[in-house]
């Protein structure tokens, strides 16, 4: 007698699939699958993946097994989002979460379903996405670092020219809205070429770094201090009028002139000249302020250096 060839589709008829067969599939998955009562949070089903990472459920609740340090249902439990106002399932919710127990990142697919006894349960399928998350975070950190480097002067660690213009224009836009004054101080080291010529370029670099550090310590966090290039620096001072800017420049001038830099063959001193400009009208532009401050700086150099000029 010839037996009829079995139809492969018959093998998958739902009524033929035993609980054991389904459990075999779920326990072979490279993902956490669990089912918990939505009222009591009791774990009803926990696949082998879950047992391997979190241990045997032992009649405990989902928050006791899966999370760390919980004394009750988790504040981030998605149960309320899985049902509508009438308590009917609303469909799957996909979200990403860092597990508090093993610190791995998971993409969770949560869904309210009717269990075989009719009660409402939560089913979660969670896939480990830690590698992807770590790569994303590393990329984000690298991008932030690259952006920082693009805005930073390599020698002194101050803002560079590009950052100075970007940040200052933002402050000026804000000042135009609020009507607050804005001031600019430009300063340039005096006879700096002689420092290089006499003590060498490395000593010049030491002086530049030291003076930048002094300026950084002296200004407020909200002030924008930058090395514009060579031995020329600028500070944009938000909410600052001319007398206050002059006072700051005088403090810097004194700090610089009393600073002594030890270099290979001795010690170096270096002073700086300062030019100041402050906004007087509401139509104020960064270019105008810089132009005025530059003129004042030129006058300070002409008048003998190591001084502050704030005439507009
Ligand atoms: N060590 C060092 N020197 C620099 C750097 N950038 C610019 N310089 C030097 O700074 C000097 C600037 O010289 P000048 O423009 O003649 O100005 P100065 O000698 O300070 O004279 P005044 O500004 O008129 O007082 C030059 O010798 C440049 O080589 C740097 O990053 N490191």
Automatic annotation (TrEMBL):
Recorded GO CC terms: plasma membrane
InterPro entries noted in UniProt: Diguanylate_Cyclase, GGDEF_dom, Nucleotide_cyclase, Rev_trsase/Diguanyl_cyclase
Cross-referenced CDD domains: GGDEF
Database matches in Pfam families: GGDEF
PROSITE patterns: GGDEF
EC number(s) from the headed UniProt entry: 2.7.7.65
Signal peptide start and end residues: none
Listed GO biological process terms: cell adhesion involved in single-species biofilm formation; negative regulation of bacterial-type flagellum-dependent cell motility
GO molecular function: diguanylate cyclase activity
Superkingdom of the organism of origin: Bacteria
Catalytic reactions on record: 2 GTP = 3',3'-c-di-GMP + 2 diphosphate
Positions of the GGDEF domain: 180-312
Cofactor(s) in the UniProt record: Mg(2+)
Xref: NCBIfam families: GGDEF
PANTHER family for this protein: DIGUANYLATE CYCLASE DGCM-RELATED (PTHR45138:SF9), REGULATORY COMPONENTS OF SENSORY TRANSDUCTION SYSTEM (PTHR45138)
Protein name: diguanylate cyclase
Source organism of the structure: Marinobacter segnicrescens
């Amino acid at each position: 007698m010839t037996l009829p060839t079995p139809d492969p589709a018959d093998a998958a008829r739902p009524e033929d699939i035993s609980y054991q067969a389904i459990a075999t599939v779920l326990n072979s998955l490279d993902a956490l699958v669990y089912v918990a009562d939505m009222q009591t949070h009791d774990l009803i089903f926990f696949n082998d993946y879950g047992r391997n990472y979190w241990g045997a459920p032992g009649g405990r609740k989902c928050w006791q097994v899966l999370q760390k340090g919980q004394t009750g249902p988790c504040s981030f439990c998605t149960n309320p989002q899985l049902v509508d106002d009438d308590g009917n399932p609303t469909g799957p919710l996909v979200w990403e979460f860092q597990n508090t127990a093993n610190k791995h990142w998971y993409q969770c697919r949560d869904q309210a379903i009717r269990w075989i006894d009719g009660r409402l349960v939560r089913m979660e399928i969670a896939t480990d996405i830690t590698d992807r998350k770590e790569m994303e975070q590393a990329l984000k950190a690298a991008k932030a670092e690259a952006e920082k480097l693009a805005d930073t002067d390599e020698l002194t660690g101050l803002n560079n020219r590009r950052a100075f213009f970007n940040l200052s224009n933002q402050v000026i836009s804000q000042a135009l809205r609020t009507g607050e004054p804005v001031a600019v101080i430009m300063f340039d080291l005096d006879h700096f070429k002689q420092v290089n010529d006499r003590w060498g370029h490395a000593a010049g670099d030491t002086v530049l770094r030291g003076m930048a550090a002094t300026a950084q310590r002296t200004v407020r966090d909200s002030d924008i201090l930058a090395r514009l290039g060579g031995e020329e620096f600028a500070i944009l001072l938000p909410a600052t009028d001319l007398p206050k800017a002059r006072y700051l420049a005088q403090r810097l001038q004194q700090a610089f002139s009393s600073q002594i830099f030890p270099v290979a063959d001795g010690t170096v001193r270096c002073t700086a000249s300062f030019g100041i400009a402050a906004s007087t009208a509401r139509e104020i532009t960064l270019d105008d302020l810089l132009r005025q401050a530059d003129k004042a700086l030129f006058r300070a150099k002409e008048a003998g250096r190591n001084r502050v000029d704030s005439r507009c």
